[in-house]
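for the recovery benchmark. tokens below, seq after
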């Protein structure tokens, strides 16, 4: 029962999942490192990446040819073969430890597998080798965001933009960093610049959607996410972000529809099940809400937000013992979770345990002064 669950139950590591990674191929003549060419139909396509891999495999590349391994590393990243990418870039580095591009690409691969320590180390080494390569700063910015070091991310993306003022990736990532730092107006400005540079970049629209939603400009947020979806109909994060905007705007039917789209695209997305559970519970679809929360917890057990959402659902169902059990489990994971404290207090009050109820409600109000009004707006008094 998180106050703005339409936004935060997602905990979707939003913007983090939507980071854009820069890759660089070794041969400047045929595989340019510039952003514009990396986004071209030729270089950015799966078909081209497959061709690179097939060519290097068929020709049995010289085991001492670092460039061939760098190119194949980038191709593997484009195809989602991150382990193979790391292996190829590692071979390239062993052959030529002074090649910054090999470190940049391996940094990108490490980000994709959530090995942020290694990613930062690789991009830092790339910068030491070539302090003027914008992709090294862009990728390290992305790693820092994923790592939670937003100030460092901001500095890196700013440096990347100084080196390449048309670096769409850097603007998108800096937009993400600004969102995490709560500077939504600067985020909107950066994503607007990214859109101007590349009007077909769905991530730029998605991130700006998030910033607008945080400023309660829901019409602008929904328009941006809708544009992102039009550009990429299988972009599940855009559906999730739009669902968040609808939820914050209390348009729960549309929020549920968007969360359902996410689930259709990825039936194992636990955050989408949790968010749909909460939206359904708010509007009284309690049995389907309970099924969604159970699925979320099946996919990711012992999650404080998921337990909180199911506790809220049980509370509205009048199953107070179950509600107390879930809220208590959530509080073991986060003792300062105001919504769980307040929800447990309401369940205890309904059971006639006034002393415990008063203690929990007081503790919740000490953490969040407006918790009572927040929960009452969701139909619980």
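predicted aa per position
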């Amino acid at each position: 029962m998180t106050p703005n669950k339409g936004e935060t139950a997602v905990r979707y590591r939003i913007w983090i999942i939507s980071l854009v990674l820069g890759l660089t191929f070794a041969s400047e003549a045929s595989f340019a490192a510039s952003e514009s060419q990396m986004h071209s139909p030729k270089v950015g396509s799966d078909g081209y990446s497959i061709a690179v891999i097939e060519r290097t495999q068929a020709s049995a590349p010289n085991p001492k040819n670092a460039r061939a391994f760098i190119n194949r590393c980038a191709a593997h990243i484009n195809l989602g073969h991150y382990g193979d990418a790391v292996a190829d870039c590692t071979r390239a580095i062993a052959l030529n430890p002074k090649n910054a591009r090999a470190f940049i690409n391996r940094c990108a691969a490490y980000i994709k597998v959530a090995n942020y320590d290694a990613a930062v180390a690789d991009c830092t080494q790339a910068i030491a080798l070539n302090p003027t390569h914008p992709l090294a700063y862009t990728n390290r910015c992305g790693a820092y965001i994923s790592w939670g070091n937003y100030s460092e991310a901001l500095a890196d993306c700013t440096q990347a933009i100084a080196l390449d003022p048309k670096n769409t990736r850097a603007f998108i990532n800096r937009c993400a960093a600004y969102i995490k730092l709560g500077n939504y107006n600067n985020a909107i400005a950066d994503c607007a610049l990214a859109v101007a540079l590349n009007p077909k970049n769905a991530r730029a629209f998605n991130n700006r959607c998030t910033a607008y939603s945080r400023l309660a400009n829901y019409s602008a947020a929904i328009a941006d996410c809708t544009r992102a979806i039009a550009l990429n109909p299988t972009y599940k994060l855009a559906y999730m972000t739009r669902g968040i905007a609808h939820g914050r705007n209390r348009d729960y039917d549309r929020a549920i529809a968007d969360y359902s789209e996410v689930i259709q695209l990825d039936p194992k997305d636990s955050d989408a099940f949790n968010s749909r559970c909460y939206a359904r519970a708010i509007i009284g679809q309690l049995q389907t809400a309970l099924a969604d929360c159970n699925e979320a917890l099946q996919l990711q057990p012992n999650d404080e937000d998921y337990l909180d959402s199911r506790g809220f659902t049980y509370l509205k169902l009048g199953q107070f013992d179950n509600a107390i059990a879930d809220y208590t489990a959530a509080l073991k994971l986060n003792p300062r979770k105001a919504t769980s404290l307040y929800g447990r207090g309401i369940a205890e009050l309904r059971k006639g345990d006034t002393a415990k109820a008063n203690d929990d409600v007081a503790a919740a109000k000490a953490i969040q002064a407006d918790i009572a009004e927040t929960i009452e707006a969701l139909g619980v008094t």
